[in-house]
UniProtKB/TrEMBL annotation:
Domain PH: 378-474
Gene responsible for this protein: Fermt1
SUPFAM superfamilies assigned: PH domain-like, Second domain of FERM
InterPro entries, alphabetized: Band_41_domain (IPR019749), FERM_2 (IPR035963), FERM_central (IPR019748), FERM_CS (IPR019747), Kindlin/fermitin (IPR037843), Kindlin_2_N (IPR040790), PH-like_dom_sf (IPR011993), PH_domain (IPR001849)
Keywords: Cell adhesion
Name this polypeptide is given: FERM1 protein
Organism: Pomatorhinus ruficollis
Length: 678
């Protein structure tokens, strides 16, 4: 018999690397350990060996080979699976990170590299004074979006570091309660709801944090626009495949930054990932509103989202005259009369995007007799050989369906056809100047989408029918409390497009100090000369000249939300059983299968009809089941399938939000819906 001492003890040597700044102290230490030593005890042994008195509370072990943190300090080395060959690095959990905001401003701040990205973004948003952090996430620029920039930048130097806003003095510790100052609902408003500037009476709230009055103004107000040269150097997607590259780099919200290969001083993009902007309030959300506006502005300038020439000029007018000029104005706007504040809050009521299936605000109103629309409209059906058949019929809109008859007198009989709009795609086809008010309906059928065009005679008729179609596509009727608000939103947008020429501005465009190339996408810069663009923008400006700064931004966001492609994130996928690649569009309330070659929608699936979704991690396939025994499965080719899975779960999570609840988030529910675990 051999005694245990003769056989050998259960101790072994573990090589530890310490990430510190001391020149007179070794970086590597060999520590003798046993398998039943817990992680906290290992930390204690190491700190005793370093022999430097400092606060080591932010340090933790990073396991290089396994790419994971050892954060459970009560676990033993055996339970963690640590053996003699493990390479452990004792390093800080909070590190410096550069974030490029939607406004293209870069901020440098200290972020937790050991928390999940979901929690890290929450901490970042507290530092930047952005409420509703669940709408944002971090994005790595994919290689495809950097190629053009690298070629252009070969002979140019990096931009000067003074462009970076340094907020590194006050790191937010993960899990610690945030200073309630800027988040408190009970305190006086912290922003002027009209100008968006910080309210002077509450600037003292900024004194303890890294976001002082000056920094707050930088993030809450828009500043000089980019040069045409800078715009030309930035990545501009030309096809759906190019647009898919924009969404390939979203980080996994359930894992930490270090686990996803992010290192100290890396640059990431902070962006609004989910297009459901909940509970916007100018009194508290000046930074948030400005950053949403900036994300919308850059998406339009870089043609990440398509819009018509008429719409582009409206966007240009709102940028050129309200956001840029008012932001640069040295005169601060004092508190305004109550009616102006009411106008801003009225505009806000049109901005909230809610998922269907949410709680109804007025149940009694919704169960009364459902109203209907009845009118003469033109029906346009695309024919072969590029011909179109246009004919006037008597249309009746009831519940979520449209029926049409030969004339009004025959409306008591059977309709020629009845179109069920639930789950359809509704696309505006409008040119106010040409008096064209069309509604394009893409209605799901067994073999794809049935395409129908409706032509209205005037703005009022268009607004009523368009609003009814939009609600019907979501399974709602005109009895829904949001119908009138939808009508007013459409009329408001049409009014902005319906401008009259200002003779003085048109005759003297050269007197206006403006670079129109900064306010429209390159496509329109090539189409028009500079003087022509100035004149056209001045035309559009006539209808938006009386707005305040915040209202101009809100109108811009509202117009962005009215675009057919708003809120769609694209991915290249291969559907099960298909022999060719398709594009999958993920929106806040639906998935759309799109033909990659033509860009036409093939099928739409609503989240409200979804029963369950999961991922087969072995073959990286996303499977979704809907009502009526409809099921789909696809593999993602342009991004990891986890990104698409998280998008779907994230939108479902956001649909559970309510104004009645406090602002604390159910992080556990988010990870259940987005984590992809059975």
């Amino acid at each position: 018999m051999v005694s245990s001492t003769e056989y050998g003890s259960h101790t072994w040597d573990l090589l530890l690397t310490v990430d510190h700044q001391y020149e007179d102290v070794d970086k590597e230490f060999k520590v003798t350990v046993t398998g039943d030593l817990h992680v906290g005890g290992l930390m204690l042994k190491l700190v005793e060996r370093i022999k430097k008195a400092q606060d080591w509370s932010d340090y933790a072990f990073w396991w290089e080979q396994k790419k994971c943190w050892l954060l459970k300090t009560h676990w033993t080395l055996d339970k963690c699976g640590v053996q003699a060959d493990a390479k452990l690095i004792f390093t800080t959990q909070h590190k410096m990170l550069r974030l490029r905001l939607p406004s293209m401003k870069t901020v440098r701040l200290k972020v937790s590299f050991s928390s999940t990205v979901f929690r890290a973004v929450s901490d970042i948003c507290k530092m930047l004074n952005i409420r509703r952090s669940e709408e944002l996430s971090l994005l790595k620029q994919s290689e495809g979006t950097l190629k053009k920039k690298k070629k252009k930048d070969k002979n140019s130097k990096e931009p000067a570091t003074e462009d970076i806003l340094n907020l590194c003095n006050s790191p937010v510790s993960s899990g610690s309660p945030a200073n309630p100052g800027l988040y408190s609902k009970t305190m006086t408003p912290i922003y002027d709801p009209v100008s968006g500037s910080p309210a002077s009476s509450t600037i003292t709230w900024f004194s303890d944090g890294s976001l002082n009055e000056q920094n707050c103004s930088i993030l809450a107000l828009s500043h000089p626009t980019c040069s045409p040269e800078m715009l030309a150097e930035m990545y501009q997607p030309r096809t759906l495949a190019d647009k898919a590259k924009l969404n390939a780099g979203w980080l996994d919200s359930s894992r930490s930054l270090m686990e996803q290969g992010v290192v100290e001083e890396d640059q990431l993009l902070l962006r609004f990932k989910y297009y459901t902007f909940f509970d916007l309030n100018p009194k508290y959300d000046a930074v948030r509103i400005n950053q949403i506006y900036e994300q919308a502005r850059w998406a339009i300038l870089l043609e990440e989202i398509d819009c018509t020439e008429e719409e582009m000029l409206i966007f240009a007018a709102l940028q050129a005259y309200h956001v840029s000029k008012l932001s640069l104005s040295s005169e601060t706007q004092d508190s305004t009369c109550e009616s102006e504040v009411d106008e801003v809050e009225a505009a806000l009521s049109n901005l909230e995007v809610t998922l269907e299936g949410g709680s109804k605000s007025n149940i009694l109103e919704d169960i009364t007799d459902i109203p209907k629309l009845a009118d003469n409209l033109k029906l346009v059906r695309p024919k072969k050989l590029a011909l179109k058949a246009i004919k006037t019929y008597w249309f009746v809109f009831r519940d979520t369906s449209i029926s049409y008859f030969k004339n009004k007198e025959s409306a008591l009989g059977e309709p020629i056809e009845k179109l069920n709009l639930k789950g359809c795609e509704v696309v505006p086809d409008v040119n106010v100047a040409a008096k064209k008010f069309g509604i394009k309906l893409l209605i799901p059928v067994a073999d794809g989408m049935n395409e129908v065009y409706l032509r209205c005679d005037n703005e009022d008729q268009y607004a009523r029918w368009m609003a009814a179609c939009v609600l019907a596509s979501k399974g709602r009727t005109m009895a829904d409390s949001s119908y009138q608000a939808e009508v007013q939103k459409i009329l408001s947008f049409l009014q902005m497009k319906n401008w009259t020429m200002c003779s003085q501005a048109a005759s003297e465009p050269e007197n206006v100090d403006m670079k129109p190339e900064c306010f429209v996408s390159p496509r329109y810069t090539k189409k028009f000369k500079s003087k022509q663009l100035i004149a056209r923008i001045l035309e559009a400006h006539q209808n938006v000249s009386q707005m305040s700064l915040v209202e101009a931004k809100l109108r811009f966001i509202q117009a962005w939300q009215s675009l057919p492609e708003f809120g769609l994130s694209y991915y290249i996928v291969r559907f099960k059983g298909s022999k060719k690649d398709d594009v999958l569009g993920v929106s806040y309330n639906r998935l759309i299968r799109i033909d990659m070659a033509t860009g036409d929608p093939i099928t739409t699936w609503r989240f409200s009809n979804m029963k369950q979704w999961n991922v087969n991690w072995e073959i990286r396939q996303v499977a979704i089941e809907f009502d009526q025994n409809v099921s789909i499965a696809f593999t993602s080719l342009s991004a990891d399938c986890k990104i698409i899975h998280e998008y779907i779960g994230g939108y479902i999570f956001l649909s559970t939000r309510s104004k009645d609840h406090n602002e604390t988030l159910d992080e556990e529910l988010f990870h259940k819906l987005t984590g992809g675990q059975e």
